[in-house]
Amino acid sequence: MWTGxxxxxxxxxxxxxxxxxxxxxxxxxxxxxxxxxxxxxxxxVMFGAPGLKFFASIxxxxxxxxxxxxxxxxxxxxxxxxxxxxxxxLKMAGISPVSLLLGKSTAQLISASMVLTVQFPFTLLAITLxxxxxxxxxxxxxxxxxxxxxVANLGLFCSVYSKxxxxxxxxxxxxxxxGPYLVxxxxxxxxxxxxxxxxxxxxLTIAATVLGWLDDFSVTxxxxxILSTGFAEPIFSDQVAWCFxxxxxxxxxxxxLFEPMTREHRTSTAIADLMLPTRWRTDTRKPxxxxxxxxxxxxxxxxAGGWRTMIAKCFIYGAVAACAAHFLYDVGLGRxxxxxxxxxxxxxxxxxxxxAALVATLFIAAAELSVFVAKMFRDExxxxxxxxxxxLPTSTTHMIYSKAAGGLLAIGPAAACFxxxxxxxxxxxxxxxxxxxxxxxxxxxxxxxxVFVYLVGYLSLSVKLWAIPLxxxxxxxxxxxxxxxxxxxxxxxxxxxxxxxxxxxxxxxICAAACFGLxxxxxxxxxxxxxx
Amino acid sequence: xxxxxxSDAIIQVRQLSHSFKGHRALRNVSFDVHEGSLHGFVGxxxxxxxxxxxxxxxxxxxxxGSVRVFSHDVVSQxxxxxxxxxxxxxxxxxxxxxxxxxxxxxxxAAYGLSLKQRDRVISDVLALTDMDVRKDSLISSLxxxxxxxxxxxxxxxxxxxxxxxxxxxxxxxxRARIELMExxxxxxxxxxxxxxxxxxxxxxxxxxxxxxIIDRGTVKYxxxxxxxxxxxxxxxxxxxxxxxxxxxTAGQINTLPGVVSVEQVEGEPTFRIDLDDLESVDPxxxxxxxxxxxxxxxxxxxxxxxxxxxxxxLTEQGVH
Lengths: 532, 320
What we know:
The complex is a heterodimer of chains A (532) and B (320).
Chain A: H1 2-18, H2 20-43, H3 50-72, H4 79-83, H5 87-92, H6 97-123, H7 125-129, H8 134-161, H9 165-194, H10 202-216, H11 219-227, H12 238-261, H13 264-267, H14 294-302, H15 306-333, H16 337-341, H17 347-382, H18 386-390, H19 396-410, H20 412-424, H21 426-435, H22 439-459, H23 467-497, H24 500-531
Helix pairs in contact in A: 1-6, 2-3, 2-6, 3-8, 3-9, 3-11, 3-23, 6-8, 8-9, 8-11, 8-12, 9-10, 9-15, 14-19, 15-17, 15-20, 17-19, 17-20, 17-21, 17-22, 20-21, 22-23, 22-24, 23-24
Chain B: E1 9-20, E2 23-34, E3 38-42, H1 49-56, E4 64-69, E5 72-73, H2 78-84, E6 85-88, H3 100-110, H4 115-128, H5 144-156, E7 162-166, H6 174-189, E8 193-197, H7 201-207, E9 210-215, E10 218-224, H8 225-230, E11 237-242, H9 249-254, E12 259-264, E13 270-275, H10 283-292, E14 297-302, H11 307-314
Parallel strand pairs in B: 3-8, 3-9, 6-7, 7-8
Antiparallel strand pairs in B: 1-2, 1-4, 4-5, 9-10, 11-13, 11-14, 12-13
Helix pairs in contact in B: 3-4, 4-5
């Protein structure tokens, strides 16, 4: 067993060493750390405890990077073999499932842990800058390492379970991004409920306790504790133990699932399953006719799933919103009119739900659009159909925006839910809109999202599954780098002048220029891919 | 080598050069493809065939030289060029979740055809490629040969005057290959100009009117198949097959007037006879002379260099 494991691990490590991208990524991380150091040093005249600020920013950055690595890097460890249809060859080579899982995932883990290793000496400077102790630094890195091990194993599980890398990546994104949020929110809601309902609801108490543990064991909670003043806890915390234990469980689950999930009949149709599952299709139905804008039609049907998927999504999103409403009302606000009369049903909480629902639908729409953009070029490259599209008698720009239009149709259900919520709850919507009516916030968010979408499109032509995580990282990094100088140089004079346009215009202009530049870069990359 | 520009040349390639990361893929490539012809483009692996095809079909910008298709420059008038040609790459480019009909309908719509036109065109191309019965099948369920036919049908939906086919028979079984060649003959019959890159020389030899042989980025020959057959032969040559032959037969034939040399194909009663020149020697006289020697003739034909032989003679040895 160990021979196979070591051979695979060595091969994976060698391959990683020969690739330029991981080295560039590490250099980028170190660059960010240097920049943070510079910013902290520059601002140390104005703020106290610069070491703590520096260390906090680096720790948060690491959590973001590890989470994104989970979505784009760890989730492809086995599924990339399924995509390439090479999993059967590895199995035929006599490598046992456990060797395969251990060999490939350990190599990825070692490669990823280099990101923490290269930055560690620099972060020790935080102690010199003041505000942080050595035990805080060690505790934070131990928490991050444990989180990385957990994310790596969760990624392994997703890649074993899913048929393709894109599905594994999607599942991982849901688990890592939505999971902690749901745990935290559910825990909060249950805690509120326990205080408002009869004591015999022991099931809720148990659920609240378990969710509380999960919430306590999250890396963000642990980092928050570590960064608090007067931290004096041991380096090996419950969070570390929980991460290692759950990693082991997830690894065992991957091992158990490996054989049934990697059988030939599951993987041979991987390419066909890239977008719409073939089983949805029948040979007997009436053929669909292309629209006048054929490219938009194609992407709407093949990538977004067409009308049937749109209708299904409307029901699913509606059902999710209804369940959330019921959960909130039943558990958090009380179930009878008596409770309303007793004052438990508060209008503020009701508006909170509407706000959450509106944010959720916007998030779904944004996520759907991002995933669509990440796939719309990559799938053409993968299916080698890009030359055929480029050779159509239309400009590359027209082709790009026709595809994007198909994606905009895909977010129809989320938009429909958004509108439905606004129509059904007009009063709550008004209060929500009033809260976020600052045009600077809205325009900044819209502009940043536009840049993010273009960046996803561009990166999808270079880095496959990493497109969304890298784009998120870049937008986060650029925002981090630009916000402080921007506030100082532009926004304060604009605020002093009392003009919203002076504040908004440069943001919109910079983002529009970035979008235009990215569009040209996408066109060049598409033409380059088509000519290969 | 015939690279003179002529009025009916649909493709004009002039001094085309292209490099990839320091490797010169094409060096001063020049040739013409004439209207209505079936032009073969042959060369060893890495000779520059696909690069040339990509430049012609506007996917790759030429670094040096010029390429004109229907008198349109492939760089500055790419859209006009694209309207007139259909390109079939050397790999299957399919949306496997579509049916055959949907796939063709998509491309027809992308070329701006109305619904009515699309119905007619799709019906025509399906009939031409013999795919009518599979029109509602999912592409993922088609065999390799069927997918190749579908590729060809796709190429035809915008009724292009020029078809560029990159290794269309590669990976097909013998039946599918023969059927494909039949379709190509039909297409030539309806007036399409076909530029076909292929490794299968025997089939090209039967099919093509003209050929360009390329090796290591340089054109070694470009012209008609007839000229290629005679290329490099100083004297007219004939091949004669007898019912039987003795060791003396070659010597006997050599004594006939106008005969320069006689060479017997090893182990067979077949002789290659080189004559002085066709001006002074009549092949009928040669036939009469052989019969007068009391030899029984089974076959008699002008001896031409086969494409295989020309290919071997013109291209260099070694792995490219």
